[in-house]
Amino acid sequence: MKNRKHLLRAATATAVALGVTGLSACGAAKTESSGSSGTVTIAVPSWVGAEANAAVAKYILENELDTEVKLTQLDEAVAFDALNSGKADALLEDWGGAPDKVKLYVEDKKSVVEGGDLGVTGHIGWFVPKYLVDEHPDITDYKNLNKYASLFKTAESGDKGQLLEGSPSYTTNDDAIIKNLDLDLKTVYAGSEAAQITQIKESYKAKKPFISYWWTPQWLNSQLDLVEVKLPAYEEGCDADPEKTACGYAETPLQKYLSADFAENNEEAAAFLKNFSWTNEQQNEVAALIADKKMSSEKAAEQWAKANEDVWKAWLPK
Fold this sequence. Notes:
Strand content: 15-25%
Number of helices: 13
Shape: globular
Low-confidence stretches: 1-37
Radius of gyration: 20 Å
Distance between the termini: 39 Å
Order of helices and strands: HEHEHEHEHHEHEHEEEHHHHH
C-alpha cells in the first residue's frame, strides 16, 4: 500500500470526526489485546462504509451483549498486523487488498481466523457522469478514452487526462492498467474518500467532464448518475502480477476476519461478529446518515438499529 503524509492528516481528521480512536503516527493501534476482557477492538478502514459496519456492531454489542467496543482506524494491511499481534480483535470489511497478509496470518500462522462474508459485494471501477455519456456515448469503452483524454486534463495531470483517485491507501491497480492499456491518463489522488466525494460533487454540479476510480456500494450513487467505463473483463489471475495488470476489477464478496485468540476467548462477541451480515443497501443507509446527513456514527447506528430490529436480532448468538 502507498503511504503519504497528506493521507495521515486526512485519516487523523476523519478519525476525530467519526469518534474513531487509536491512530498513532505510524498508523498502528495503541490499544492492548482485549480477547477475554469483555472489550472488543474493531479495526476500521478509512471509508464510511467500514465506519457504518463498525458503528452498528458497536451499538449492538454494547447495548445487547454488554460488551465495550473500541474503534481504531487502520488500513487493511495494517489491520491484519494488529489482528495478529492482538492489538485489534476484528476487521469487518476486507476487500482482498492484502492477500499476502491473509496467507501469512490465516493460512500459515493461524493467528487470524476467517469471520465469514459481510454480506456486501464490492466492486471497483472507473466511472464517468451520465451527462458525459449522453454527449459521447462511446466514452464508456476504454478503447475510446484516449480520444477524450483532453476533456479530463487538470493542472495536476499536466498533458494527460486526470483519473481521480481517493485515498492512496485504497486497493488500486490503476497505474498499471493505464500503462498496460496505453491510456493518456494520470492518477491524481484527492487524499481521502471525503475529498474525492467533494471533487466529484463539485464537478457533477457544474456538469464538468471527469473520470474517477469509484466503487459500489457507495451512498453517493443514489444521488448522482454515474456510468462505469468498460475495462477488459476481469478473469481469475489477471491481476496476479500488479505490474502486468491490464484488466478491470472483480466483484468481491467482502470478508470479515478475527483475531484467533479473541475468537477463542470471547465466544459470544465473536459469534455475533461472525453472524453480522447485511446488504449493500443497508450499509449505504447508515453510511449516508454519517457522510451525507452529518449524523454522528453513534446516532446513525442507533437510528438504523431501532428501525431494523428484525435484521440484527438474527445476528445475536443463540
